[in-house]
Amino acid sequence: MIRSASAHWTGGGKDGTGSISSESGVLKEAPYGFNARFGDGRGTNPEELIGAAHAGCFTMALAFRLAKEGLTAESLDTTAKVAMEKEGEGFRIARVALTLRAKVPGTDEATFKALAEEAKAGCPVSKLLKAEITLETHFEG
């Protein structure tokens, strides 16, 4: 299975503008730029999208892990806070802090925490943050 998304950019780093789109159409030319990423400007940014992807992936992985134990969540609410820090001349994503509020009848806290840790480790987005990344370029000079 392959899913795709795309980005378009024009202009410089601080004064340029861009848009992000997804294959599903959920994102269709969603604006992003310097002020949306590093300030309070309108639009989205890569870190916000990584946070949304991680929160969604982890929460679904946990629902599947609970089901494997015969448990069904009444509610699972996850927030992902993505921290970006200065590193040399650029930046790096330093960490993602997941916060989960859950109501799961039929289990105890220790069992639930263990299942949540398994879901965190097994979630494909958690694994992505450690994955090999490849790049293919096509230059039109």
* Strand order of the biggest β-sheet: 1-2-3
Gross morphology: elongated
Mean model confidence by pLDDT: 93
Q: Under CATH, the topology of the largest domain is which?
A: GMP Synthetase, Chain A, domain 3
Strand element count: 5
**How much beta, percentage-wise?**
25-35%
Uncertain residue segments = none
Rg calculated over all Cα atoms:
18 Å
Count of DSSP-assigned helices = 4
Gap between N and C termini:
33 Å
Structural class: alpha+beta
InterPro entries: KH_dom-like_a/b, OsmC/Ohr_fam, OsmC/Ohrsf, OsmC_Ohr_Peroxiredoxin, Peroxiredoxin_OsmC
Pfam families: OsmC
Region (Disordered): 1-24
GO molecular function, one term: peroxidase activity
Q: What's the helix and strand layout?
A:
Layout: E1 5-10, E2 17-22, E3 30-32, H1 34-38, H2 46-68, E4 75-87, E5 90-103, H3 109-122, H4 124-128
Antiparallel strand pairs: 1-2, 2-3, 4-5
Helix pairs in contact: 2-3
Description:
This is OsmC family protein. Residues 1-24 are annotated as: Disordered. It comes from Falsiroseomonas algicola. The chain has 141 residues and is α+β, with helices and mostly antiparallel strands. It folds into 2 domains: 1-44, no CATH class; 45-131, GMP Synthetase, Chain A, domain 3. 33% of the residues lie in helices and 30% in strands. The chain has 4 helices and 5 strands; from the N terminus they run βββααββαα. The chain has helices at 34-38, 46-68, 109-122, 124-128, and strands at 5-10, 17-22, 30-32, 75-87, 90-103. The model has no long low-confidence stretch (mean pLDDT 93).
